[in-house]
Amino acid sequence: MAGRFFNSETLILFGCSLLVFYLAGVPLIMLLYGSIRSAPIGEPGATYTIQNYVKAYFDREFYLLFWNSIKYAVGTCLVSFLIGTYLAWISERTNTPLKKLFVVMALIPFIIPGILSTIAWILLLSPKIGLINLVIKELLGLESAPFNIYSMLGMIWAEAIHLYPLVFLLMSAAFRNMDTSLEEASLSAGSSTFTTFRRITLPLMRPAMFGALLIMFVRGIEAFEVPALVGVPARISVFTTKIFLAIHQFPSDFGLAGAYAVTLLAISTAGVLLYQRLTRKEERYATVTGKGYRPRVIDLGAWKYATCGSAFLIFLLAVIFPVFVLLWSSFIPYYGVPSWELVEKLTLSNYKYILNYPLAVTAFKNSFYLSIGSATLVMLLTSVIAWITVKSRIRGRIFLDNMAFIPIAMPGIVLGVSLIWVYLTLPIPIYGTIWVLLLAYITKFMPYGIRAASASMIQINKELEEASLASGGTWFQTFRKVLLPLLMPGFVAGWIYVSIIALRELSTSILLYSYNSTVLSIMAFDLWEGGQYTYVCALGVLMVLLLVAMATVARKLGARIGIAD
Amino acid sequence: MAEKKFMVQIESLEKYFGEEKDRVHVLKGISLDIPEGSLYTFLGPSGCGKTTTLRCVAGLERPDGGKISIDGKAVFASGERVYIPTNKRPIGMVFQSYAIWPHMTVFENVAYPLTIQRRPKSEIRKRVEDVLKVVGLHGLEDRPAPKLSGGQQQRVAFARALVNEPKVMLLDEPLSNLDAKLRVQMRFEIKALQRRVNITTIFVTHDQAEALAISDQIAVMHSGKLIEVGTPHQLYSRPKRKFTATFLGLTNLIEGRVLELGGDSKPGRMETKKGVLSFVPATGLQKNQAAVISIRPEHIPVHKEKPQGLENVVEGTVKEAIFMGDAYHCQIAVGDMLLAVHTHPFLNVSPGEKVYLHLDPQSCNGLPAEDIEGMGESMLGD
Fold first, then answer.
1. What is the C-alpha separation between B61 and A110, in angstroms, rounded?
2. In the structure, what pLDDT confidence band is assigned to residue B377 with cuts at 50, 70 and 90?
């Protein structure tokens, strides 16, 4: 009871920093360290070397690899930006009919794991078996397939159509938050709608646009699913697949993978840093004002049917075709174009096969536990971190914030390589178990958790917390009884998001799993590599159902625990 | 006050905000003794350090120097490296925003200080019921907190602060979030409540009218320093410092130089632009010192004819007279100086009229002209 000059806040900061350092800092250090070692630590004769970089950079194909990666990322970024921004503009700023429906449809691709959408696009656009190709060939009597997914353009298309919902969200928010009286002032000053758009709207939107472009570029450069499933057979290599192959070849070349990973990390870090610099000012303003402007809606006249039609065309391509091909393929006994003959043969045998497949049960369990476990732990950890960075005035909190954000710049495959290095080196025997996956997921999704938790934390009046202290509550009681319940809306939102992206995670898991720690996305990958298309689709449909169920339950539970907002 | 015990004692409290370069010195050696059972007010303009001092007592801010004890026990002492955290101090606090937890009912909010100590259920129920009766919220136990009005929220906040029978109750501008009418009503309620439970209470406000109405004692603060302590009556009618005179209510200041200090029942004499005036000197005033005479507008009788046999009579011209119902508020030019004067509503004065003002020596407080440094722009409170 004797008071000391010591407080629990410092202890909490210290504990959190240590944990975050272990999760985010150690892998980064080990990656850099590993890339300058000739062999994994502990192996006899391992020395410091620059041989890995020499081997990576003086490879004849390195510049082709670099060029491909950039082309792929820029292409993805531009296409997804155009689609996402166009849809955001239609739904926020025009009087296009049915725009409420667009918001829902624009977000559906979110729930489809990347590996499934990639598979769906192969099943649609493959020159040999692609449904769209086959149908068009049939209808127009063409000799060869009009589209080829196994090309740079095909890859860009498959990736962009998967990523555009994020652009849609970012740009919708930007359109919504813009003070339209600024535009009205320009109009009333006598300038035309077009001049206003060019001189006022565009400059105001520029930070948001660059921000969205940069995020998409980073997403493109770190993408794994499309390059692995489409790029590898098409012999189009990018960094992520090169790293994957360096580890999956026999014997694995960890050093070379490390050198490529460091290069990829440098590119994505540059993108993230640029993005943060760009948006820092904007975000600061956003928290200060946070006004809900009523956007000025542009009357498109008859054009509104054209915009409505074009939006439906996009959804046909982005949602309906992929979902249809997955569903269709999951119910047929062997892969083929829809026909009456096949309709009569529709069957549940693919689902039966999956549910009786021993590994599938393990994969479902693992994915489920990992998803729920990582989402819960991430949100608990990041709630405390958000408290430190938002509420406390402890010195060193900025450092913690920055460290916890490191993983946002780490492509999944790079994190995988880093963790291989960590657990090949440290005497912690979890390599190849489900625990290393759990740690990887927590590390990878920590930044998303922080974002959700800090956004809610900012809204909680400091006095609500002080009132608990003044009532005799300890820090822990205050956190559990006052802060956590008040954080619940943000906590649940973050939880749902993390559990969804955890359930479909592939690029990190693929370097860290073993037979017993297989997860759903890896099983889908393996089934696909084994050519069992119909089984993959059945598995995919089950995966999506699980995702929807989890999100629904979480939302229901959250509404009961938290306050109605 | 010899036998009276002090519940809260603050000694040379120091506090800085910010780090290194932009460090701001917010508390510059505050020392206070707060008697047991009294309603003690920290009054001052925003930024004077009153809330910071309160938060130091609560333990929500950690001072950089000095000592604070509650009921004779040190809760903070920089020398002995003592710092008792907020949750271990015998306090109850009412916040400016009330800080009623929106995810709990009235009962859960009020019971919180007891539930976290794991008291028996029956005891909690009994004590919450009792305290809700005291604040006049009996029967609203199960109401969710967001469904309370402003006044009800405040009562919940009081109940929560009182339920654990703290030794000190801390009130951080609890009335500033209420509308004007309710604010005046709640003054009386707080005063009555404090008398009823007889708990030592520290009240922070920037509203001088509120402070005068509610307090047993007021500590006037400015720029991180304690200016003066006294009862509302003392501070209003016999301030010792120029800042107190200007901050509490309206006053007129006439500059001059002390000729004679007087003594016993004899008034002092001061040389001013309006001639030599008699006044009551504040303690510590020196002969030949630059000084001001402070006189309140309602203490200046106005005569239409020059009164005979009176000291301190000056001649002036009415510039403006505004009828306020209970008085005329006049601006009267005396030479190049404007004096604010409140006259009886029956004394009909009109602009341009020549009048005589009686600056009664008993109402003229002679105060040192030099007050603390850094004053000036925020001299006039609201």
1. 46
2. very low
